[in-house]
Amino acid sequence: MQTLGIIGTNWITGQFVDAARESGSFTLTAVYSRTMEKADQFKTKYHAPEATSYTDLAGFMNASEFETVYIASPNSLHFEQAKQAILAGKNVIVEKPAFSNPTEMAAMQTLLKQHPDQFLFEAARHIHEANFKIVQQAINELPTINGATLSYMKYSSRYDAVLAGEEPNIFSPHFSGGALQDLGVYVVYDAVSWFGVPDSVDYQAELLPTGVDGKGVATLRYPTFNVTLIFGKTVDSYLTSEIYGGQTTIVIDNAGTIGKVERYSEGGQKIASLGEPSLANPMIAEAENFATMIANHDTKRYHELLQLSESVNQVLYQLRQSAGIIFAAD
Hints:
The chain is of the alpha/beta class. The protein has two domains: 2-126 and 284-312, NAD(P)-binding Rossmann-like Domain (Rossmann fold, 3-Layer(aba) Sandwich), CATH 3.40.50; 129-280, Dihydrodipicolinate Reductase, domain 2. The chain is built from ten helices and 14 strands. It has an eight-stranded mixed β-sheet, with helices on one face. Helix 5 links the parallel strand 5 and strand 6 (120-123). Helix 1 (11-23) crosses helix 9 (284-296), helix 4 runs parallel beside helix 5 and helix 8 (179-195) packs across helix 10 (299-323). It is globular and about 60 Å long. It holds the Pfam family GFO_IDH_MocA. It comes from Latilactobacillus graminis DSM 20719. Residues 5-118 form the Gfo/Idh/MocA-like oxidoreductase N-terminal domain. This is Oxidoreductase, NAD-binding Rossmann fold family protein. GO terms for molecular function: nucleotide binding.
């Protein structure tokens, strides 16, 4: 079992720590937080009383207690913290979106080439799950591809603060926030993984007073079909997602968290239920995969994931440009 340090003490960090423990992939040995109280509370809650607490980031990065750091800080902080970790000799798992723009991504790629023994993973957890791969296989079996509609909308508890005139991090351009970055990244990962990098993109965004998007509809154009992405954080949606292939349609219950995958034939007849039961913790598969790649020094699969991350980063940036959304990091 490999040693793990974490930055960020929110629910998503806790979910990853639980997944790491349940899968036997990582053991938590160091926690960084802005306050000692929050760090200690996190260790108690997630059954790691022996882990060391840090409030000094430099001291945390240079600590010997851990080999890999999981970063779940606000989006705008990812680049500098990942850079510090690589320079300190750590492997990095950084929550999606990994970086704010292609400039940061290119700088990180250069740094990684200078440190070839270290790994940096973007934690797009759903692409590691069994049902994601089942969808990919079903697409490969289609006689043709005529396009897709992929949807993921979920009301954010932080949107109430926006309605009250505030600017929470997740809805702030200063922290590289917005619906595209938070939930849109899931469906962009879907599209780029399943169909490749689009020829062009367009994003019709509904902008908030904070300067970022609350929800919107994006179009990814490919040579012979289009993919429509619907995502947002200001409403709840129960739309399914669909992939079209002639008289066959693949139906997915949720493009961000795939629980059911079904295939329909001409006339709406369901001909197969393809999905597997989802794990209680959706991060188990990615924790296992990251730990295995590090342990086996699997650079082939690692570089495939890094290239995918770079492609997704580029598409996210092009979509933001289309909608006129500018971050402080730009």
